[in-house]
Specification:
This protein has helices at 3-7, 18-44, 53-62, 69-94, 117-128, 165-175, 189-198, 230-244, 255-272, 277-285, 291-299, 303-313, 317-330, 337-343, 356-360, 379-398, 416-419, 425-434, 446-464, 477-487, 518-522, 552-562, 564-568, and strands spanning 135-140, 146-149, 155-158, 181-185, 204-207, 366-370, 409-413, 437-443, 467-470, 489-500, 503-514, 529-533, 539-542. With 569 residues, the protein is an alpha/beta fold. The strands form two sheets. It has an eleven-stranded mixed sheet with strand order 2-1-13-12-9-3-8-7-4-6-5, sandwiched between helices. It has a two-stranded antiparallel sheet with strand order 10-11.
């Protein structure tokens, strides 16, 4: 018998014997009558009767005590209140509108010790030298303690639109970062809520080409600073490709790979020659210009890359047009001057250039990455910068004691499937945890992740996460069935009584029952979530909304100062 069976073996169908029920009702009726009679006597100002129930019954029967009409009215009121209270309590415990009954069937007590404050604080201090126990996730309904993600834990949340992702997950996570941090978003609320607190620990870098959060291009970052090899050039191209490609669109088996290869080689040539990234776009406009980047590649020993450019420049007309057209489409975001202001500088530029190695070693700098989806999006730059920042953190971790960052880098990938389609994220997730790079990826649904990374990719991302949260709002049967199995089931004991000629018989039956069915998960209340942490049972929990935290005052002040929507109001 497992722990759930042991704790909850009685089940919903078992109940007290009929004789016990009759006795309890009789006692309750006597109590109501006594209370009503004495209350009526006090209101009428008449002599008080005895409180001995047996003597009172005898006195009433023999006429030595009077039962006033007011006592009948009061008794009726008490009965109505008693019945209403009993019904409300029953619904609270077992009714479908109060699903907290599931809390006692999930992780409770000692089950949660590995993810609660005391254990997490000791682990953080002993292993990582940090006083902070970890990143807060939620508050367990059973026991009321806060459950945490540790400093080597990766997180993923799936919750529908307007289901706590920003207010109860992104904001508290970013504010809890002990050192440098970054976040992606397609709205200004995360930036507005956290900026005031975060700027107390370091510099704020707000990438905002589309003006979502009032950011100004008073600094810049060179994407080509990431390109130090052929592989890096290919990774940067993939970041740009993911931003413009609709996951549901079929790609051409010839032109797409050739166009990707062309962009990668041009990015490498521009990086080696210390040219601005806009030169790469100009090269795609005229195949006759391939002589310049090809010569750069040959001078730096990249013979195969140079030969590839020569070959593509001399393709037949239609083929060449298709390849170069694909490359132009990949780099189409460079046509937008609002984007280029953030990624193109010069030697005489007075603006500071974002130095990613310095950023990851800062005391608490924060990088906000804003972008909308669709036409004119800066999502390619958002993805590239997030990827380059995590790589800089990984390189620094390799040189650090123990192969991990002394102070973790915290990243919140909000709207990851829309504005940060990082192709290699599922492959890197587990590895980043061991390096002290703690990421929280927020998705609206399993299918949204599948569109970006494929079924194998989203499954890998889910499996690599040490902490997983479901916040409701999903109608995806396959995913909800998966959660139903993960939550588990319990032994529900039912008791049935039947009358026979030779007496009454009682039978008991144990049935394995899902703790949360697909229907229950689909109807998950807005103020509840289910947390799955490695090594512990699932946890039925309350979200940690920012307006219920000690930092509420600072957050509201920050919103008034930095959220454009609040400023307009």
């Amino acid at each position: 018998m497992d722990s759930r069976q042991h704790r909850h073996g009685r089940g919903a169908g078992a109940g007290p014997a009929p004789a016990v029920i009759v006795a309890a009702l009789a006692m309750a009726a006597t109590g109501v009558a006594e209370v009503a009679l004495h209350a009526a006597e006090r209101l009428d100002g008449t002599a008080a009767a005895t409180w001995n129930p047996l003597v009172l019954l005898i006195d009433l029967a023999r006429g030595r005590a009077r039962w006033p009409t007011l006592a009948t009215v009061l008794a009726g009121i008490l009965v109505v209140l008693f019945v209403a209270g009993t019904v409300a309590l029953s619904r609270r415990r077992t009714g479908p509108r109060h699903p907290d009954r599931a809390a006692r069937l999930m992780g409770t007590g000692r089950d949660l010790q590995p993810v609660t404050g005391r254990a997490m604080r000791r682990k953080a201090k002993d292993r990582f030298g940090l006083d902070q126990p970890g990143l807060p996730v939620a508050r367990a309904v059973a026991g009321g303690g806060i459950v945490y993600a540790g400093w080597e834990d990766m997180q993923i949340d799936i919750a529908g639109p307007r289901r706590l992702k920003t207010s109860a997950r992104a904001i508290p996570t970013l504010l809890a970062a002990p050192g440098p941090a970054f976040a992606t978003s397609n709205k200004p609320d995360l930036y507005g809520a956290t900026r005031l607190t975060r700027e107390r620990g370091g510099r704020i870098w707000n990438l905002d080409p589309q003006g979502l959060a009032g950011g100004r291009p008073d600094w810049w970052w060179n994407p080509l600073s990431y390109v130090t090899s052929v592989t890096r050039a290919q990774e940067l191209t993939d970041a740009f490709v993911g931003a413009y490609t609709d996951p549901s669109t079929r790609t051409d088996a010839y032109f797409e790979p050739e166009g990707h290869n062309l962009v990668s080689n041009l990015l490498l040539a521009a990086a080696l020659a210390d040219r601005p990234i806009t030169d790469v776009y100009h090269w795609t406009l005229d195949p006759n210009q391939m002589l310049v980047p090809a010569a750069v590649l040959r001078d730096r020993g990249q013979e195969l890359a140079a030969a590839s450019l020569d070959s593509q420049a001399t393709l037949p007309g239609d083929q060449r047009g298709g390849v170069f057209g694909t490359a132009k489409k990949i780099l189409g975001f460079l046509e937008n001057p609002d984007v280029c202001r953030w990624i193109v500088g010069s030697r005489s530029d007075a603006r500071p250039q974002l130095d990613l190695p310095a950023f990851v070693q800062s005391s608490g700098d924060t990088l906000y990455l804003h972008s909308k989806e669709g036409k004119g999006s800066s999502a390619g730059v958002v993805t590239a910068l997030a990827m380059a920042l995590c790589d800089a953190a990984e390189q620094h971790a390799k040189r650090s004691p123990g192969g991990r960052l002394a102070v973790p880098l915290v990243g919140v990938l909000d709207e990851a499937a829309n504005i940060c389609r990082w192709p290699q994220l599922p492959n890197l997730y587990s590895h980043y945890g061991s390096r002290g790079i703690c990421l929280l990826t927020l998705l609206q649904g399993w299918s949204q992740g599948r569109e970006v990374w494929g079924e194998a990719g989203i499954e890998k991302l889910w499996t690599a996460a040490n902490v997983k949260c479901y916040g409701g709002g999903s109608d995806e049967d396959q995913y909800l069935a998966k959660l139903e199995r993960l939550v588990g089931d319990y032994d529900r004991l039912t008791v049935s009584v039947s009358d026979r000629r030779d007496g009454r018989s009682t039978s008991r039956q144990s049935t394995r029952t899902a703790i949360q069915t697909v229907a229950d998960l689909r109807a998950l209340p807005r103020d509840r979530l289910i947390m799955f942490a490695s090594g512990t049972p699932p946890v039925w929990a309350r979200p940690l909304y920012w307006w219920e935290s000690p930092a509420e005052g600072d957050i509201r002040h920050s919103l008034r100062l930095f959220d454009p929507a609040e400023q307009q109001r």
